[in-house]
Write a structure and sequence with these properties.
Elements lengths: L2 H6 L2 E3 L2 E2 L11 E4 L7 H5 L5 E6 L3 H4 L2 H11 L3 E5 L8 H13 L4 E6 L1 H11 L8 H7 L11 E5 L11 E6 L4 E6 L8 E4 L9 H19 L7 H22 L4 H14 L13 H13 L3 H16 L4 H12 L8 H19 L15 H7 L12 H10 L2
Helix pairs in contact: 5-6, 8-9, 8-10, 8-12, 9-10, 9-13, 11-12, 11-15, 12-14, 13-14, 15-16
Bound molecules: 5,6-dihydroxy-NADP and zinc ion.
Length: 405
């Protein structure tokens, strides 16, 4: 099912959101903690012997995770093929190349060791190996479901933010078409299990760590800022946001603080494993705007979100005023006495802006390389979703991009 269909399902008519019927099933088993990699060898016993090890540009070789994993694979007697060099924002060309390698190797299991890009890529390969059609057209243009065998994926996570370790999402970039598109598959595409060791994230460059923190925040906001909902999901979201803000402030001062980094890792997984989207509508327009920026600039995902967020939220605030008031009071502890709703809501967004600046996030798209000449193309590359407080027109999208410059 496409993102649009899943949103529309909850929408009876404009402005009226019902608590939809839903199924909740998340089959990804998680192993969490500094000893979690020990579980890999036991899990490997459940799969055939041809393993495809997928990783990024080399960080796992520098920090030793590659050696740890490869030793376990060898001790387990597996035949290993490798796809190194999965880039941040993985491309369709890289996907096609990986599918060919996976087919040659008759892969039984894909082991992704890296961040969201590597994990997303592994899932995209897994649904394409036995597919007769080109994955770009089938999954990212026509948003079709998988109709072939899905090769199981496992993940050893090294970067926190995307939630890819416990969801069926995969985002692929097509530079030629200037499109970056995500397909959220069903839970049959989720990793079978993911290993979450907070220590593995300690070698992340500061900018990546901070970009990941904002990615988490925005995933929660995307699911929170939609509908006149007052359901359990929104209360869980507020708790996740408060935990993230608290722990991120500790991690800024003390990046090696294990407790803070592990709280953030856990928050990140729950921010986008479908739990807080259940029973409500969702927005996702910040991601649509950010993905268009990513398609043009190849910028770091979390920074594309931070650069467009405030212009977007300030634009839609009047259409969802009560939720923005709730956000200000319940998440940022803004006091309401003597203030209008508009003032309270604006103070909430100002508080989020101050926190984003504390993190050192990129706050405008100019700093990501966007130029005036790109604006028209950016609008064209932005997918419009109907779940937010205001379904944007192309003119409004243009206004928001201009405000973000
Ligand atoms: O490639 P290597 O050398 O491994 O370096 C990576 C990369 O340069 C580095 N890194 C990762 N772990 C490290 C590390 N460096 C040192 N130490 C470590 N432990 O960090 C850089 C970024 O990695 P990447 O995987 O690209 O980051 P992220 O996890 O933010 O993933 C971004 C991708 O995920 C998609 C994004 O669109 C983007 O393509 N998303 C996936 C989602 C999903 N599946 O649900 C949702 C998200 O909203 C997001 O859109
Ligand atoms: Zn994201």
């Amino acid at each position: 099912m496409s993102i649009d269909e899943s949103l529309i399902k909850f929408k009876k008519k404009e402005g009226e959101i019902i608590l939809g019927n839903f199924t909740y099933c998340n089959p990804t088993k998680l192993y969490f903690g500094d000893q979690s990699l020990h579980n890999l060898s036991t899990e490997l016993e459940n799969y055939g012997s041809n393993i495809l090890l997928v990783y990024g540009g080399g960080s796992i070789k520098k920090n030793g995770i590659y050696d740890e994993v490869i030793n376990i694979l060898k001790d387990s007697g597996k035949n290993i093929a490798e796809i190194p060099g999965v880039m941040p924002n993985p491309t369709i060309e890289k996907l096609r190349e990986g599918v060919a390698i996976a087919r040659d190797h008759k892969v039984d299991l894909i082991l992704a060791v890296g961040g969201g890009s590597v994990c997303d890529y592994a899932k995209a390969v897994s649904v394409s190996i036995h597919c007769d059609e080109d994955p770009w057209d089938k999954y990212f243009i026509r948003f079709e479901d998988v109709s072939c065998e899905i090769v199981p994926v496992e993940c050893v996570l090294t970067m926190v933010g995307t939630g890819s370790e416990m969801n069926g999402g995969t985002i692929i970039t097509n530079h030629e078409q200037k499109l970056k598109i995500g397909h959220v598959f069903g839970e049959n595409v989720n990793p079978k299990f993911s290993i979450l060791n907070p220590n593995y994230t300690l070698t992340l460059p500061k900018t990546q760590m901070m970009a990941g923190f904002y990615d988490i925040m925005n995933h929660i906001c995307e699911q929170y800022f939609s509908g006149a909902d007052d359901n359990t999901s929104d209360y869980i979201s507020e708790g996740l946001m408060k935990s993230l803000i608290h722990s991120s402030r500790i991690a800024i001062q003390d990046p090696n603080n294990y407790e803070a980094r592990s709280n953030i890792m856990w928050t990140s997984t729950w921010a986008l494993n479908t739990l807080v989207a259940k029973g409500k509508s969702t927005d996702w327009m910040v991601h649509m705007l950010g993905q268009a920026v990513g398609a043009y600039t190849d910028a770091t995902h979390g920074m594309t979100l931070s650069a467009v967020s405030l212009a977007y939220y300030r634009y839609i605030m009047p259409y969802g005023l009560d939720k923005f008031v709730r956000f200000a009071t319940n998440v940022w502890d803004v006091k309401v006495e003597g203030k209008t709703k508009e003032q309270v809501a604006a103070e909430g967004l100002n508080a989020m802006e101050n926190w984003m600046k504390e993190l050192g996030l990129v706050m405008n798209i100019t700093d990501l390389g966007v130029t005036d000449e790109m604006l028209e193309g950016l609008v064209h590359s932005t997918i419009i979703l109907p779940g937010g407080y205001k379904t944007l027109t192309p003119e409004e999208i243009s206004t928001i991009f201009k405000e973000s410059m």
